[in-house]
Write a structure and sequence with these properties.
- The chain is of the alpha/beta class.
- The chain is built from 26 helices and 21 strands.
- It has a 5-stranded antiparallel beta sheet.
- Helix 17 packs across helix 19.
Amino acid sequence: MILSPSYSVLNNSLFNSYMDGIIIIADDLVKDINQKACEMLNINKREVLNESFDQVLPDVLVEDFLSDNTIFINNYCLSIKVIPTPFGFHILIQDISRVKEVCSQVLDDNINNVAKLLNASDDGFSIVDNKGIITHANETLLHYLDITSKDIIGKSSNTLVTNGIINEVSFRHVSRNRKKFDLKQVVTRRNTGLLTTAVPVINSIGELEYIVSTSRDLNRMNQLARPIKKTTFLTPKCSSNEIDNSFIKMLRDEGNVVESPSMVEAFNKVQKVMDTDAPVLIIGETGAGKEVFAKVLHEKGSRKDKPYIKVNCGAIPSELLESELFGYEAGAFTGAKKGGKKGLFELASGGTIFLDEITALSLPLQTKLLRVLQEQEIMRIGGAQTIKIDARIISAANDLEEKLKKEEFRTDLYYRLNVVQINIPPLRDRPEDIPQLVNQYLKRLNLKYNKKVSFSFNAIATLKHYSWPGNVRELINVVEKCVILSNKNILEESDLPKEISTDVIDHQEELGNLKEVLYNTEKKLIEKAMLYYGSTRKAAKALGVSQPTIVRKLNSYLESGESAKEVSSV
């Protein structure tokens, strides 16, 4: 490793003073490790430098390399994140024991101590209640977002998206799954990024109480990563992560939308199997994009220069499907062509055959397909000899589990087809992909209909929260409908089809009865201000209202029996 002397001194100072642990890996060796990482992992820096990472630090990455890990070691609860670099990867170790400390403080309702703890941190911290209302945000986070506390305290976390402050929030993901969630956020006002980790706080009866989030500036993390980019290695080699990332980048450059982690994971599996001959089973809801995956498997694999035959098994009558797949000999049946006909398996020999809606096959046809998989040969209808074929089989289904339960699909055929299974997530589970999908289809449709239609930020936010039962196919339909019927260039939320806004209101966790939400939010803010400041005068000043307003509100809570807090006018 060769570093300029002046640069390495600056790097040492910044590197070792950073509050999180950092390990720099290149050529599978530990090239550097800062003091905080040594402290948390209880290791000696000299003992691990230039040693094999897997040998000296085997317990750091306990799960899949591409996943974020959480480990418990030396009384620390550590969040482990892997950051790929051109020469290897960096490991960022965050002590999330502090998050648990904040959670404990929140549950004790010790607002004063929480506020001090939050504001003393170099990380951005926020607390959201189980309705998605932001109850706390420290000064670091406000600085990151370039806003004031009045802009967000007491408001739904979703307003950060609708007001164009950031592109996504973690509330919907955490409240649904009740698990720690990592999210990369784009701060639109500052054109920067945040890496946010959201942790749910569950009470003793299993209910979600709060969500505590920590955020850190990605630009600052990238600054720490820059020194290694200036390093020259004598024998640089490409890591498996870099290969994966280059494949995903290639797909994006070709117009494929691969933004969500679940889609990245699915396409990474495509990369692993595309050069093999193993049968692949693609599982996904109708309209989720199964054909896209099948096409990538063929076009990026070793058979890309050979035939690619697509067969929609559900669109061809069962009495004709057998002759289409296997072909027939002359005179096999009335109306058969003179000289017979090759089947689709023969035409696909050397290449790939994609059997969409595979569950539409009749049981007798399933038996014949099983023979094709086992023997790599077919027999034409009316034929007496078998014909060897060499076709890779990719199949797809959306109701396979149901068909297996009803014994309408052979289990032995299922095991033959399911050597490798790729699951395509439904569109509702990958909202990160929606903005790019919308822009992609808008370009095509605007060109087709000679228009210049676009969607406002609020309209895109609404589309991201719709449940999309018809998946990508329904999204294309909605975008085309909007382009055709639109009389203006920028479409707002009100211009979307009624079923979308209705569904969002019915299903969005952050929404509720407007009067009830406003009442509960106001009540919580006033009571917390009284806890923090101890007098109506100071609470009124902090909340930007008059003292009589605070007194009147508190008295109304007392009269309704909802609050028993002492009212002081000091």
